[in-house]
Write a structure and sequence with these properties.
Strand order of the largest sheet: 13-14-12-15-16-11-17
Radius of gyration: 35 Å
Structural class: alpha/beta
Strand content: 15-25%
Oligomer: single chain
Helix content: 25-40%
Largest sheet: 7 strands, parallel
């Protein structure tokens, strides 16, 4: 044996006596690398081995005890030093280990037991109460510490981790796998079948590398057990030659495939069976990656992080709730969510973390609701006779749903607390009339109201409706004069704008309708007491808050024509009182909806022509504005030109899309409403739109690209009168999944049923709009799980009923966790 190898063996033997604590050499084994390399070269040891060994020595301090032992064994394999293989396994040592002398010349002794050296996985971790969590970073335990404190993570690796959104320990703990590969069921080689994902334990029979005709290198290892042999193959990865040695026993995981009639495993994961098997022989986590980060490195780093730091995470959840829900403590949940011992424990961990997220979400929205209800506002009441006179002047009879919702508004306005209500109802269900009657109750007492809409043309429509409702001269006692109801939009002239500003300031104008122009600084109200926001998802938190702040605790009513599933009512909109208008006015016919495929498009054109001949109008919707290079999807600009020149030469075809300026879009819609166009080609900008009473046909090209909620909104643009109306869906292909979804449109006109299906299929994105962020950042929870949502809401409500401010000692951790989950931002008081 070369002297350099003999020297290593003696040092390694001493290191084993010191329990692999890097004490055998002053300064650590890493100090050996340079001097040993020089000695090895002088003795003629293969140059290919030296870098591999010095690399192992350099990273020795960053390894845990078991990894250090494995690293020394690996060096023994590389140098063919059989005595090193007999170094004691640290997990099996249960003797007193002598420690080196201290500076005072005394020898310290430390008893090392298996429980102290083996990486354990307790089923129920000890719950700590000295610091808060979820996912709160507490400096007393270091959860806000940089990832560079993690073993093996330097500055460069930390920069790579930041690209995954991982800046500190807390981020790492809540960076969950995107999937799990279950390699926990071992098989023998003789049991293997083509296509399986398996783990086997086998001995390396031989390993070689050879070139192919295409100048690629194949590294081939033959492994065997008592039942047979199988080949492991890697392309252009000859570095495996350095790690695999004849006679090694390894755990191998991968997919069984075939090569030249024989079973093989391409690019398998493997580990020596005497090392802790993180990559094989278990349920293996698979994490999202970014450039310059490998799955194996990240998995090891996550293991080191979770094993150490999960024990230092405090649990804010009361024991009583955990016992009732039968959920594990948070430390156990974090460990099992990353490196599960079984599928059952993985599911329990995921349920705990999801429950935490929904519970804190519920606490947040309930706290918002409590805070809103604690405010005082002016009381507004009217007599039944007064309200009945207003209702009697309408040209139609209110539906039961409208009457019920109007009752909700009367109750809110008389409560002494500011209204904070969401009014949801399908397109055409009559929400605007109810909002107008609510504002009338406030205006009747001399106060002011504001009505904000997302577009100028829609604001104009509301303005006309409010004039008819509140200033109709046919009424015996009209509530307002026409000059007391004004419209403020981007096109409002300077002189008219100045008059409006003056009238608002002195209180002469009682109702202002408009777009975001309402929230501009010059707009000052004398006594703003009610705010109505139409199509609320089109406005951001700051915009709504800015309008509400122009009054003192005004009553707030937000409206949406997008039906909201119950699970979202309890979470995203859980701070709001909700009124649902699920009934259409009498005389409305359901819109006939059909699916036509591209080859049947001519049938849609025939329908359009026949309807136009009867005096009706039609929409044709496209998913894109213009066709891009190699883009097969039809686009609005090109198709408008084709339809005008080739299909409907004798009709007038208009065009509207999102790239047009707001005033251009408004003008186009105004011209279409005034019947200057027979057909309007458009993109999705008509989803929220003006009432076009003569529109009876809605054709949607590329229908498979839209969600059900959006398709239902398009369909709501037609059928506004008693005439029969039609919606034609034209998907791009006959894809069974997409078209099965579209079939739902043909089966029901109920927007609430479609909203539930859309939520299941596409998630909550379409319902969120510009509502406060955070709902899409949930790590584990699903906003579709109504069972978990209702359970979490019940527990959250119980907590607030007992301790609304969470000031009790047992709720201290919960309050800190809540404040972390709901960070204070501008406009958080406006959760609408």
């Amino acid at each position: 044996m070369p002297l350099s190898s003999e020297k290593l063996y003696k040092i390694f033997k001493l290191e084993a006596e010191f329990s692999y604590e890097n004490l055998a050499v002053v300064g650590g084994l890493q100090k050996l690398a340079e001097s040993w390399a020089a000695e090895a070269r002088a003795e003629g040891i293969s140059e290919s081995l030296i870098p591999a060994i010095t690399s192992i020595l350099n990273r020795y301090p960053d390894l845990d005890i078991n990894e250090r032992w494995g690293a020394l064994l690996e060096i023994g394999d590389l140098l063919s030093i059989p005595k090193i293989a007999r170094l004691p396994n640290p997990t099996q040592r249960e003797s007193t280990i002598k420690k080196p002398e201290t500076s005072k010349g005394k020898t310290q002794e430390k008893a090392i037991t298996p429980s102290q050296t083996k990486v354990s996985r307790p089923k129920r971790a000890k719950r700590t109460r000295e610091a808060s969590r979820y996912p709160i970073a507490d400096t007393t335990i270091g959860l806000d510490a940089s990832t560079t404190v993690i073993r093996g993570v330097g500055d460069k690796q930390a920069e790579h981790l930041k690209k995954l959104g991982l800046s500190n320990i807390e981020d790492m703990l809540y960076f969950f796998p995107r999937r799990y590969d279950d390699y926990s069921s071992l098989k023998t080689i003789g049991q293997l079948q083509f296509g399986e994902e398996v783990t086997i334990i086998a001995r390396v029979v031989g390993i070689t590398t050879y070139p192919t005709k295409r100048k690629r290198k194949i590294t081939e290892a033959v492994v065997s057990d008592t039942t047979g042999t199988i080949r492991l193959l890697w392309f252009n990865q000859d570095y495996h030659m350095r790690y695999l040695r004849k006679g090694m026993f390894i755990s191998i995981s991968g997919k069984i495939e075939s090569y030249l009639g024989r079973l093989v495993i391409y690019h398998p994961d493997y580990e020596p069976i005497d090392q802790q098997q993180l990559h094989t022989n278990r349920i293996v986590p698979v994490y999202p990656l970014t450039a310059k980060i490998t799955q194996r490195w990240l998995r090891r780093t996550m293991f080191n992080t979770v094993e150490y730091w999960s024990e230092r995470v405090s649990d804010f959840m009361p024991d009583s709730i955990l016992e009732e829900t039968q959920l594990p403590d948070i430390s156990t949940a974090l460990k099992q969510a990353h490196f599960p011992d079984s599928q059952d424990e993985l599911e329990q961990a995921q349920q705990r973390i999801a429950f935490d997220e929904i519970f804190l979400l519920q606490l947040g929205v309930i706290r918002q609701k409590y805070q809103w209800q604690s405010l005082e506002s002016k009381i507004y009441t009217v007599s039944d006779e007064w309200l009945q006179e207003r209702i009697a002047s309408l040209p139609f009879e209110l539906t039961k749903a409208q009457k019920r919702t109007l009752g909700d508004l009367r109750k809110d306005l008389a409560s002494g607390h500011p209204m904070n209500r969401l009014l949801q109802g399908d397109v055409g269900s009559g929400k605007t009339v109810i909002a107008g009657l609510g504002m009338a109750i406030v205006i009747a007492s001399g106060a002011q109201a504001a009505f904000m809409a997302p577009t100028s043309i829609l604001a104009e429509q509301h303005y006309q409706n409010m004039l008819e409702l509140l200033t109709n001269p046919e009424n015996t006692t009209p509530l307002l004069q026409p000059d007391q109801v004004r419209l403020l939009i981007g096109d409002t002239s300077t002189s008219e704008r100045e008059d409006i500003l003056q009238g608002l300031n002195d209180g002469r104008i009682k109702l202002l309708i408009g777009t975001h122009a309402l929230i501009e600084d010059p707009v000052t109200f004398n006594n703003l007491q009610m705010v109505v926001v139409d199509e609320q998802h089109r406005f951001g938190v700051k915009q709504r808050a800015a309008l509400r702040n122009k009054g003192h605790n005004p009553h707030l009513l937000v409206m949406t024509a997008t039906p909201i599933p119950r699970s979202l009512q309890l979470t995203i909109f859980g701070d709001l009182d909700v009124s649902v208008m699920d009934e259409m006015p009498a005389g409305r016919q359901p819109v006939d909806t059909h699916i036509l495929y591209p080859l049947e498009r001519e049938r849609a054109y025939t329908l359009i022509r026949s309807q136009v001949e009867k005096g009706s109008q039609a929409f044709v919707i496209y998913p894109l504005v213009e066709q891009g290079e190699r883009e097969e999807t039809k686009a609005a600009v090109e198709e408008q030109q084709r339809l005008q020149e080739e299909v409907f030469q004798d009709l007038k075809v208009g065009l509207m899309h999102g790239r047009m300026r707001p005033n251009e879009k408004d003008n186009t819609m105004r011209e279409f409403r005034n019947k200057q166009y027979d057909i309007l080609v458009s993109t999705s900008v008509v989803e929220v739109g003006v009432d076009i009473p003569d529109a009876t046909v809605m054709v949607i090209e590329g229908a498979n690209r839209f969600g059900l909620a959006q398709l239902h909104q398009f369909r709501g643009r037609v059928g506004r009168r008693a005439e029969k109306s039609y919606c034609i869906l034209i998907p791009e292909t006959k894809n069974s999944v997409d078209n099965e979804r579209l079939v739902a449109m043909t089966e029901t006109n109920d927007g609430f049923i479609l909203a539930e299906r859309d939520l299941q299929q596409r998630g909550p994105g379409e319902f969120l709009g510009t509502r406060q962020s955070g709902y899409t950042d949930l790590k584990m929870a699903q906003l579709t799980n109504i069972r978990v949502i209702e359970k979490a809401r019940r527990h959250a409500q119980n907590i607030f009923e007992e301790d609304p401010d969470l000031t009790a000692a047992e709720h201290e951790l919960m309050l800190r966790a809540l404040d972390h989950f709901w960070p204070a931002t501008e406009g958080t008081g406006d959760m609408s």
